[in-house]
Amino acid sequence: MTDTTRTVRRTSVVTEPMVLAFDVTVAAVQDLGPTFRRITFSGACLAGFGVAGAPLDLRIKIVIPPAGRPGPDLASMLRDGEGSWYQRWLDLAVEERGTMRTYTVRTSRCDGPRPELDVDFVLHLDDDGRGGPAAEWAASATPGDRVCIIGPNAAAAQCATAGAYGGIEFRPGLAQHVLLAGDETAVPAISAILEALPEHVGGHAFLEVPSARDVQPIATRSSVAIRWLPRGGAGHGEALDAAVRDAVRVPGWVSLAGAGTVGGGSEPEEVDIDRTILWETPQLHEATLPATARPAGTQPFYAWIAGEAAVVRGLRRYLVRDVGVDRRQVAFMGYWRKGRTELP
Ligand SMILES: Cc1cc2nc3c(=O)[nH]c(=O)nc-3n(C[C@H](O)[C@H](O)[C@H](O)COP(=O)(O)OP(=O)(O)OC[C@H]3O[C@@H](n4cnc5c(N)ncnc54)[C@H](O)[C@@H]3O)c2cc1C
User: Ligand 1: which residue has its CA nearest to atom 27?
Assistant: First the structure.
């Protein structure tokens, strides 16, 4: 019997962080209409920003530094220290930490020679030019201004040992009929989703905006019917609510697929939208019901709904309770709440 020596090779697994802080500069500012202002951010560090595939409704955090100060060193806060970086940021003095808000990447060119991101800001300002800190910042932004973006690490997107970045909610699975509905804050996400949808996907996209001058061209290969809903003098969400009810009639979401009926569904549990965020999104594996769970002759359906929380809550009740849509087929997201700031 020979004596054998087993060599145990110790390999250290380097796990890429999923999220990084990117110090970026405003490269360009472009008004897209009375409501939207596109801000292009650039910076060599953005070469490390990205997800695998299209950004879809990719969300990021934008940290606007306090006036006249550089803002916190978020790169170090994300890299070093115990526990959550977000809590460490919250623990900073208000005049030191700046303002953090959530936005969508409208377009990413981070894999190009000059890495850039476009973000479309809604300028929700009163007649005196006052609004939230992010809207006010966007309204006065000029090239050279600096912010910090917290977003996905491109290296982690390619790395088998890293988890998935949690900032994309649009997960239609194999759905061939989609319903996309949102107010102006969801326009960047819906536009990016439509640009990425393939030919065989149909359905409806409803985008409610303050004015007809906010309508923008959207290129899509899909056969989704895009309808802009200028609000005019109507209340926030009224046009969106009516359009969704018209497209998805009771009984039966299957009207989108053009056949059959289903009955009403269960009462969704109440969400106190003034205390919590309305955020109900199915997981990837749940996003499309198996064929056996669908009424005969219908095709997989998926809905994505975002905007002011009370409007989204109303549509959630309608779709889940009245129409009977399975909650595994709908993402409901309160992007903002009337009368409440996003963060302390
Ligand atoms: C995942 C996600 C993605 C988002 N993507 C975008 C995006 O791409 N573009 C975009 O513009 N917004 C987007 N939003 C919404 C944005 O984060 C909020 O509108 C945010 O409140 C703006 O911050 P603020 O500092 O301007 O206002 P805050 O300080 O948060 O709020 C101040 C006041 O303004 C009100 N308010 C906030 N937003 C609006 C609004 N749009 N219209 C009218 N009143 C408002 C609040 O109710 C509050 O009374 C997104 C939100 C989420 C959760």
Answer: 132
| Same fold yes or no, 19-157 and 177-336 | no
Domains of the chain, residue spans: 19-157, 177-336
Q: Whose CA is nearest to atom 31 of ligand 1?
A: 341
- Pairwise CA distance, residues 16 & 151, whole Å: 13
For residue 36, give the ligand 1 atom closest to its CA.
11
**pTM value > 0.85:** yes
Q: Which residues line ligand 1 (CB under 6 A)?
A: 59, 101-104, 120-122, 124, 131-135, 185, 188, 335-342
- Ligand 1 pocket test: pick from 36, 61, 278, 342 the residue with the most ligand atoms within 8 Å of its Cβ: 342
pLDDT per residue as tens digits for the range 76-111: 999 887 888 999 999 999 889 999 999 999 999 999
The CATH number assigned to the domain with range 177-336 reads: 3.40.50.80
Ligand 1, residues 104, 106, 124, 126: which to mutate, most atoms within 8 A of Cβ? Answer: 124
Q: What does the alpha-carbon distance between residue 171 and residue 57 come to, in Å, rounded to a whole number?
A: 10
Residue 145 clears pLDDT 80, i.e. is over it: yes
**Smallest CA separation from ligand 1 atom 40, residue:** 124
The CATH code of domain 19-157 reads 2.40.30.10
pLDDT at 291: 55
Q: Which residues contact 282 (CB under 8 A, 6 or more apart)?
A: 171, 327, 328, 329, 330, 331
Nearest to 138 by CA among 118, 125, 123, 117: 123
Q: Whose CA is closest to 72, among 63, 80, 61, 81?
A: 63
